Every structure is written in structure tokens, then in C-alpha cells.
């Protein structure tokens, strides 16, 4: 498509006669895209797989948890559509709605594997993880990302962002993993929403009342003009369906050609950015161009300082990385991403870098350059071990305050950078590298999604300084319109809301809660015990599944994630009643 | 959130299951099902889950008026997110039309 103005070359008669897609609800959208007569709704409202977590919090649930799974055909080809209802809880990903999407993708992958390529379409309209189901929503996003990556080599996964909510939060990482992304001018794609950035970084960082700025940074036209979306289509159901037919007929992308695999492009693009020399979002269109290809080398590149600063801040991440690996001087991939490689494993951690040119990532947050460096370190190990029978483990030492909340990060496409890391970890897991995440400090939100949640095995220290959540407490309280005290009170009975690591360990994806004597300065005993736990986890990863199914089959999951398990069973049964 | 239960007399039973609406701001979803085998065939059984507490009387009046005029027996589940009485009536009528129709579009 050529550059599309607001109404994309439609005459006013066509404009009035068009069938708006944005005005449709989730079911209407799915139906408009599928061949007439073909849609079959799976796990629909009368199956009553509603969220088990909302009623105890006094929130009216929706019978299908706000996500429609519709199976059918597009131009005769088998397709499953996951349509997120933007009206229900802002399209937020909960345990059930998330499980519906990931399980539908996995069923499509199983069919594709068995010889019936089945494409998937995700209609992203979401503000991100549903904070009322915090940790279960966050994990659901990790499972969706993994499932997108499982299906993507077998059949196309097409993302459609039409608006008006747009795609925000961790689900935008999934959008960044899609084979193709279709947007309208009304769409927005970003990792952190403008209001959250303003809340975290102040109004100078992002004025969330400035709509022109929001669309200049996150808008569909901008994402298309900078190569972060593939098709720009006006809000017209027929034109969107035509674009979808094209995308599905184009089939899978060549291996290595997905945006989230193009570390060369990401690196060359980031090298042109320095928040110290402010840039208008529009300048990116000429600087980067509309194709996702490396930026011409004539553009001046910004050199990062090669080594660490003389006296780097002591943090748990740095301390445990050194202690567990036994490597006294870990290699800084960049000053804020440390790597220590032994004969058996590569240890990775994100650490603070007070001199980070991306100033919103100076306290150890995962920003654009951290996401790239992690992806490079993981891909390098895959490459180094590609002929080895015994793949080395990757140990993600997790101690990070969150992802970076910043305007520059959003302009650069933080979601796409995080997709590159997610893709790399998934690729390593599928290739047979055991991935073990060890949470030694805070593990919040998109930071944890990027560095930790794609692991086969997740371990955590049982320590008050360890906190795993979708958002830090003050912000989560504000967004869900509660006081911190109310949030603490609810968390006593609603496990996914809790900030306590022993509650998190009940959710089904903790493979070990480790009691240490000193989490800030591990003792010899601590190191021996945690080291042994990692060895055990590596062994379990080697003999266990390479997908994330163990998070649904663990003993804790049987108790806590019964709704996710019910989704898996029901969808499988409705997908193929003969089975 | 408040859960309210009502029961009204009726003659005809819904012939099909119907789903309308969304639990979105100012809207509600309705799930209508024909009476189950062990349900009384001559009753409207309504369960309302509403995000706004304290409107029991208004709910009763809106529902009573509606089901007095159009007594369609069945199980009615309303999941409400702050819909006004006007919107509630609109959604009820939408569900009724589809649920009572003998040959309407399948839902």
C-alpha cells in the first residue's frame, strides 16, 4: 500500500458507504474477516469460562472473558482468529483470555504440523496485562509469545491493530513477533502507554494529553512509515479483509527474515539514536525509512562506551551473576548487560548503568539497547553451540525494576526490541539450550517478560527483597483505582495480585523457592545451595518439554490455574471433537 | 459488584440461546437460555451482576416492566457495567427478539 492519508484515497461517497471495522465488537470483527458462513466460535459465552479472579474483587466478569476465538476460513484457507474485546477491561489480558489465545495458537500449530497449515490472526486491542490478575496475566502473555513463535514457522501469524484502544503492554511484544502486522491510521502500537510513562517519568517525559504527540510516536501511520508495520489500511472491513487475504496467501516468512530476528536492523537503527540530541518522531521516517532494513552506514553512528564505568553500583544482579558463574570480571555486552560464560552455561544479567545514554534505563531497566544486547548474547550462544550435541544452559539472573518507561524508547519501538529478546530466548529453548531464570531481586512487568519468562525453569529466592509482579505497587493501585492498603488486603486472598514471592510460587510456574541466608551478599552456603538448584533445574529442563506446557502441568498449576487448564481442555475438545 | 436475583411469571419459553452485548462501560451483556429441564417452564429467572451497587429498586422496576409486557420464560443472565435503564431495555429487547424468533439468524 502507498502512503495512506486518514481516509486513504476514499471518495466521500466511499467513506460514507464503507463498513467501519473499528465500530464492530470483537465477534463482529472476527466475523467480518472470515469467509461468510465459516466462523465457528470456540469457548464462547455459553461455555462460561469467565475469569475466576474478578468476582472476588467485585468486578463484573464477561462470560467469554473478553476474547473471542473464532475458527473458520479466509479465502478458503483454514484460519483461527483471536479477537480481543476492547470494551471489556480495556482489552486487558487475564488468565482465561490469555489462555484462550495461546491455546488456540498451539492448536493451529498442531494442525499445521499434522499437514493442515492453519494461520492465526490476533486482533490486538489491549492496554496490556489485566492488573487485577497481575502475575497470571503476565505469564499468559509469555505463553502467548511462545505460542506465536511455535506457530510462526508453520503458518503465518497475522496481527491486526485497528484501534481505538490499540496495542500496549506485553501484548505488543507478541505483535512484534507476528509474521505481518496490519494497522489503520487510528491504531497505536507501543510498549508503555502514554499515561503510564507520564505517571512514571513526569509530564516532560510524555504529556499524555497531547494526542498529536501520541499518534506521532505510536500511531499506525508512524509505525508503517518506519517499517514497524507492514500494511496501512483505512478503517474499512472489506479493505482489511483484503489485506488479510494477502497476508495469509503470502504464507510464512523465510527463516531469519522476521522483524524480531533482524538484530542487524535493530542495532543499526538504535545506533542512530541519542536522547541527548532530541529528535522529532517524524524525522525517524527519513532516518530509518519504511522498510525494516539496516540504516545506511553513512548515518553517523553513536558509539557506546565499551567498558563498564569505573565504580559500577553494587546490585543483587551483579553480585549473583559473579558469584554463581565464578567469573570475576563478567563481560559487559554493553555496560548495562553483563555476560559470564563458563564451560556449562552463559549467565546474563541486566544491571544499572548511570551513564546510559537512554536515561530512562539507567537504574537497571530493560530498555532498547538492553533488549538488543540480551538478544545478541543469546543468539551468539546458539550460534557457538549449533553443532554441539550438548547445548550449554542459559541462566538469566533477574534483578530489574521494570522495562524503561520513556518517550525515546517508544519512538524507537521498545516492543519490537523486546520481541527480539523474546524470540532469541525462545529460539535457544527450542534448540535445546536449557533456560533457567533465577530471580534474585525485583522482576517486574515487561522487564521480566523479556528477561526471564521465556525460561523452561524459573527459580526465585525466598526473600523480602524479591518481588515479581506486573507493575510496582503504587502504580498498580493508582491504575486499578485502589489504595495501596486495599491492594494489600485483596492480595491476601487473590494470589496473582500478591507481591509476596511465596504467593507467586503458588501460581504454577515456580520450580523452586530458595531460602538463603543473605540475598544481598550470598554466603558460601547460599551459593552452594542455589548453584545445586540451578544444576537440578538444568537437568529437569533437559529432560522436560521445550515448550512452556510444564507451567500448566505442575502441581501448583493444578490447584491455582484450573481456569487455564479448563480453557486448554475445552478448546482442544471443541477444536477436534473426535480426538 | 452486586448480584441480584429476580423471578417473574411467563408463558412462552425462549426457543434458543442468545448472547448480546459486551461488559463495556455503559453497556451490559445478556445471556438468554431456554429453561433447563428442571426449571419451571413458566418463569423468567433473572440474575443480574452489576458493577454499580445500590440500584436494586431501579433494576426491579426496569425488569418488572419489561417482563410484564414480554414474558419470555428462560434463564436471563445480565452482566452489567453501568448501563443506563435505556441501554438495559435496548439490550433486553435485542435478546428477546433473537430468543423468541423461530427462524432468526443463529446466534
Question: Secondary-structure map with pairings?
Answer:
The complex is a heterodimer of chains A (579) and B (107).
Chain A: H1 12-17, H2 26-33, E1 40-42, E2 67-74, E3 77-84, H3 95-113, E4 119-123, H4 134-151, E5 157-161, H5 171-177, E6 180-183, H6 194-201, H7 211-218, H8 220-225, E7 231-232, H9 237-249, H10 263-270, H11 283-288, H12 316-325, E8 331-334, E9 337-341, E10 345-350, H13 368-384, E11 393-400, H14 407-412, H15 414-431, E12 435-444, H16 445-450, E13 457-461, E14 467-469, H17 473-479, H18 484-491, H19 501-504, E15 512-514, H20 524-543, H21 550-553, H22 555-560, H23 562-575
Parallel strand pairs in A: 3-4, 4-5, 5-6, 6-7, 10-11, 11-12, 12-13, 12-14, 13-15
Antiparallel strand pairs in A: 1-2, 2-3, 8-9, 9-10
Chain B: E1 2-9, E2 12-13, E3 18-21, E4 28-33, E5 43-50, H1 56-69, E6 72-80, H2 85-100
Parallel strand pairs in B: 2-6, 5-6
Antiparallel strand pairs in B: 1-5, 3-4, 4-6
Helix pairs in contact in B: 1-2
Briefly summarize what is shown.
The complex is a heterodimer of chains A (579) and B (107). Chain A is an alpha/beta fold. Chain A has 23 helices and 15 strands.
List its salient traits:
heterodimer; A: 579 residues; alpha/beta; 23 helices; 15 strands; globular; B: 107 residues
Could you walk me through the main structural features you see in this protein, from its secondary elements to its overall organization?
The complex is a heterodimer of chains A (579) and B (107). Chain A is of the alpha/beta class and 579 residues long. Chain A has helices at residues 12-17, 26-33, 95-113, 134-151, 171-177, 194-201, 211-218, 220-225, 237-249, 263-270, 283-288, 316-325, 368-384, 407-412, 414-431, 445-450, 473-479, 484-491, 501-504, 524-543, 550-553, 555-560, 562-575; strands spanning 40-42, 67-74, 77-84, 119-123, 157-161, 180-183, 231-232, 331-334, 337-341, 345-350, 393-400, 435-444, 457-461, 467-469, 512-514. In chain A, strands 8, 9, 10, 11, 12, 13, 14 and 15 form an eight-stranded mixed beta sheet that branches. Chain A has a seven-stranded mixed beta sheet with strand order 1-2-3-4-5-6-7. In chain A, strand 9 and strand 10 form a beta hairpin. The longest helix of chain A has 20 residues, at 524-543. Chain A is globular and about 75 Å long. The mean pLDDT of chain A is 94. Helices cover 28% and strands 35% of the residues of chain B. Chain B is built from two helices and six strands, in the order βββββαβα. Chain B has helices spanning 56-69, 85-100, and strands spanning 2-9, 12-13, 18-21, 28-33, 43-50, 72-80. In chain B, strands 1, 2, 3, 4, 5 and 6 form a six-stranded mixed beta sheet that branches. In chain B, helix 1 (56-69) packs parallel to helix 2 (85-100). In chain B, 37% of the residues are buried. Classes of the chains: A alpha/beta (579), B alpha/beta (107). At the A-B interface, loops of A face strand 4 and strand 6 of B.
